[in-house]
């Protein structure tokens, strides 16, 4: 059985001015994979995602997504940003915000199709925000807003779901809910999730890629103290079992 | 007030003034809503002040000032939009420069215009009592343009004003949509200059929509409410200014400002109680 790569990053370097953020990063993500991308703040995780989305261009190396260019593939990706790129007091309901995820389908710029409505409704049910659909986004809690962002990404019926710190702004119980949801979604799509919490995501993801300017790849089972030290520098470790 | 209503039935210039302020309020309520929710009041301010450069150039070369204003508004909208999209870091400084330099160019050009007594004050503070029938037609056509544009493009406008990055990922031509939106704001600015002058444009653009956004929960409703508020403020300002012979534009802005103050006090009191 041949396994196809849905994301292929080859020898990519990127810098913001003088600051080298990524250096010779090579990483492939297979179809159906659930990859966790971990590393310290400023280690280049978000930058790598933005390269995959085509929001940034690599200084060197190449990025291919779904066997084509990032620009071609972008609409087939669902992206959940770390920070909502909108004002919380924008006058828009949950339903309208989720529907915007359908943009990019044919004609969707001028009118929604019935397929758009179905996809958005399904996305809201899956993320358990269907009952909130008439609410203004300004009236939501942090966890509910996070679900709106995920629902918006799902409404586009993506082949790959890319999430940037989806649990950074919510409490622990919600965090588990979100990862349970991702585990279900992984049955039908490839998922790449960025997190700073290496211990937590290792319970859910199938493979962890550790990023701190350069890349070290590991299976979840071999997360060791040495690796964490390589990645974050010397830290005080407290062993804990989940 | 009774005096104003009586005068209104007799004087065509007052009827024209009232009609002009009503027409301007339509475009202003619609464009103003985007200005408020996208928080681009500063961009709109830059566009409106730089319009004087175009007016100055038009009178200097002996052309119609309105066309100069329109052209300058369009060019500045493109320039300001380009600054916003390309130069995030010093957006403020660059727009301040456009704002001031455009205005200075206008003042210089008007001062150098020979044999033509251009009333600079009428552009700075509006000349609604002098508005001509031809200008009313222009305003009507511009209103139809604004309404049609929003009817067709409401979804791209929503996508871009709500979340620019997401719109870009979904393949929306963000730059193009943003430029069209700013052009619409610029067109509205030119309409409003007739009524309150370029210095006070920003008040009439922002205040009705800002009040409306305290009560209405969707873009459409905010637009509708902002248009109605614009009608009330401009009719109220016109009526109040008539008796004591006050400058009309400034009175309209004062009425709108008072409305905003009251509304903000009311809505924060309401929030505290709930």
Structure description:
By secondary structure, chain A is of the alpha/beta class. Chain A has one domain: P-loop containing nucleotide triphosphate hydrolases (Rossmann fold, 3-Layer(aba) Sandwich), CATH 3.40.50. In chain A, 29% of the residues lie in helices and 26% in strands. The model of chain A has no long low-confidence stretch (mean pLDDT 83). By secondary structure, chain B is mainly alpha-helical. Chain B has a single domain (13-264), classed as ABC transporter involved in vitamin B12 uptake, BtuC (Orthogonal Bundle), CATH 1.10.3470.10. In chain B, 83% of the residues lie in helices and 0% in strands. The A-B interface holds A 53, 55, 74-75, 77, 79, 81, 84-87, 90-93, 96-97, 100-101, 103-104, 108-111, 136, 152, 156 and B 37, 39, 152, 155-156, 158-159, 161-172, 213, 216-219, 222.
Strand order of the largest sheet of chain A: 5-6-7-3-8-9
Q: What separation lies between the terminal Cα atoms of chain A?
A: 34 Å
Strand-and-helix sequence of chain B, N→C? Answer: HHHHHHHHHHHH
Radius of gyration of chain A: 18 Å
Structure, briefly:
The complex is a heterodimer of chains A (242) and B (274). With 242 residues, chain A is an alpha/beta fold.
Keywords:
heterodimer; A: 242 residues; alpha/beta; Rossmann fold; six-stranded mixed beta sheet; three-stranded antiparallel beta sheet; 9 strands; B: 274 residues; mainly alpha; ABC transporter involved in vitamin B12 uptake, BtuC; 0% strand
SSE layout:
The complex is a heterodimer of chains A (242) and B (274).
Chain A: E1 5-16, E2 19-30, E3 34-38, H1 45-52, E4 60-65, H2 70-73, E5 77-80, H3 94-99, H4 114-126, H5 142-155, E6 160-164, H6 172-185, E7 190-195, H7 198-201, E8 207-212, E9 214-219, H8 225-232
Parallel strand pairs in A: 3-7, 3-8, 5-6, 6-7
Antiparallel strand pairs in A: 1-2, 1-4, 8-9
Chain B: H1 2-10, H2 12-38, H3 41-60, H4 65-86, H5 91-111, H6 120-125, H7 133-162, H8 164-169, H9 174-196, H10 201-213, H11 219-242, H12 248-273
Helix pairs in contact in B: 1-2, 2-7, 2-9, 2-10, 2-11, 3-4, 3-5, 3-9, 3-10, 4-5, 4-9, 7-9, 9-10, 10-11, 10-12, 11-12
């Amino acid at each position: 059985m041949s396994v196809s790569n849905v994301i292929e990053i080859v020898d990519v370097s990127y810098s913001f001015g003088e600051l080298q953020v990524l250096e010779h990063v090579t990483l492939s993500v297979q179809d159906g994979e659930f990859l966790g991308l971990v590393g310290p703040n400023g280690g280049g995780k978000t930058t790598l995602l933005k390269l995959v989305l085509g929001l940034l261009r690599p200084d060197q190396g190449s990025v291919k997504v779904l066997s084509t260019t990032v620009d071609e593939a972008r609409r087939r990706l669902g992206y959940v940003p770390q920070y909502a790129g909108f004002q919380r007091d924008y006058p828009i309901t949950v339903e309208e915000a989720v529907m915007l995820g359908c943009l990019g389908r044919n004609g969707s710029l001028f009118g929604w199709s019935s397929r758009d409505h179905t996809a958005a409704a399904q996305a809201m049910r899956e993320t358990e925000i269907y009952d909130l659909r008439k609410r203004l986004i300004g009236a939501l809690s942090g966890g509910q807003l996070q679900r709106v962002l995920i629902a918006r990404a799902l409404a586009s019926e993506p082949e790959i779901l890319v999430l940037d710190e989806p649990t950074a702004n919510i409490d622990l119980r919600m965090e588990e809910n979100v990862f349970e949801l991702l585990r279900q979604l992984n049955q039908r799509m490839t998922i790449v999730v960025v997190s700073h919490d290496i211990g937590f995501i290792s319970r859910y993801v199938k493979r962890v890629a550790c990023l701190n300017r350069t890349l070290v790849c590991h299976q979840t089972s071999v997360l060791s103290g040495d690796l964490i030290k390589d990645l974050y520098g010397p830290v005080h470790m407290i062993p804990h079992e989940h | 007030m009774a005096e104003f209503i009586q005068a209104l039935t007799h004087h065509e210039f007052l009827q024209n003034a009232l009609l002009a302020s009503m027409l301007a309020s339509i475009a202003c309520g619609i464009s103003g809503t985007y200005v408020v929710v996208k928080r681009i009041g500063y961009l709109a301010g830059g566009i409106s002040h730089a319009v004087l450069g175009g007016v100055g150039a038009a009178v200097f070369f002996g052309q119609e000032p309105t066309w100069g204003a329109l052209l300058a508004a369009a060019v500045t909208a493109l320039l300001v939009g380009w600054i916003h999209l390309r130069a995030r870091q010093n957006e403020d400084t660059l727009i301040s420069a456009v704002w001031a330099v455009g205005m200075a160019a206008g003042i210089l050009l008007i001062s150098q215009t020979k044999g033509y007594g251009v009333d600079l004050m009428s552009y700075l503070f509006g000349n609604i009592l002098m508005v001509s029938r031809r200008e009313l037609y222009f305003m009507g056509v511009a209103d139809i343009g604004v309404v049609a544009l929003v009817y067709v493009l409401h979804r791209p406008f929503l996508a871009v004003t709500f979340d620019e990055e997401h719109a870009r990922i979904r393949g929306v031509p963000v730059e193009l949509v943003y430029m069209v939106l700013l052009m619409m704001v610029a067109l509205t600015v030119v309409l409003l200059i007739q009524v309150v002058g370029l210095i006070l444009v920003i008040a009439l653009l922002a205040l009705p929509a800002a009040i409306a956004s305290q009560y209405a929960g969707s873009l459409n409703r905010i637009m509708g409410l902002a248009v109605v508020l614009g009608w009330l403020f401009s009719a109220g300002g016109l009526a109040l200014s008539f008796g004591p012979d006050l400058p009309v534009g400034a009175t309209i802005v004062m009425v709108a400002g008072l409305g905003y103050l009251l509304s903000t006090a009311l809505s924060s009191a309401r929030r505290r109680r709930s």
